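Figure S7 source data.
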Amino acid sequence: MGNWKLHGSLDAIDQFANTWRGLALSPSVEVVICVPAPYFLHVRQQLPELGLGAQDCSAHESGAFTGEMSAQMLFDVGCRWVIVGHSERRLYHDETDSQVAAKASVAQKAGLHSVVCCGETLAQRQSGQQLAVVEAQLKASLASVALDKLIIAYEPVWAIGTGLVASPKQAEEMHLAIRGWLTELYGTEGISVPLLYGGSVKAESAGDLFACDNIDGALVGGASLEAESLAGIVEAA
Ligand code: PGA
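C-alpha cells for the predicted 2-phosphoglycolic acid complex:
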C-alpha cells in the first residue's frame, strides 16, 4: 500500500501511470495507493488496476465540519481503503486514540477497509517500552472497532521517512505481539487481520520483511511515489 502523503500532481500521476503500464507485475499482489483527495478521480481514470485509498477521514458522518471528508464520500468517489491514525496525523493534528477508533468505525460502516496505524517513537524504543506503548495505543485505537475490513499497520515513528528501516527481527517481534493482542480483542478470528509494516520500506529491504511469518504487506511512503520503486516492492512481495 502506497501513501503519497502531501505529494503528487496531475503530471506526476500521468508519468507514474505510463511507467506502471509498462511493467508486467504479478496480479497476485494487491496494490493500493493512498493519494491526496484532489487526485482521486484522476488516479481512478489513469490507474484503474490499482486500489484507491485515502490518508484520513472524518470521525463524523456529516454535518457542519468545514474541511472534513466523510468516509461515505470517500467510498462514493471510489476509495476502498483509508489510513487512520498515521503518526503524522497523531503528531501534527493531535489525533487521539479515541478519535482514531471513531474514524476506523465510521470507515467500516461506510464499507471502507480501515488501516489503523500504530508505532513507538525512538525514545520509547530506546527505553525498552515499545511493546507496552504499542499495545496500549493499539487497544485504545481499536475500542469498539469491528473486525470487518480491519488492517493494522505497524510503523515505528523512528523509521518513517528516515531511511532507518526496522530490522526484520524487530518488525516480526512486534507483528507477532500484535497478532496476540488482536486475538485477545477479537478471539481466534483476530489472527486473520492483515498486518502491514511501514517505515522506510524499499525494494532492497522488502524481501526480508515479507519473508517474516507475520508481515503480510507494507505501507510505503517515499518509495511509492515512483512507479519503478513501488514495483520493486511488489516484486519482492
Ligand atoms: P516512508 O513512509 O516509507 O517514507 O518511511 C511510510 C509511512 O509514513 O507510511
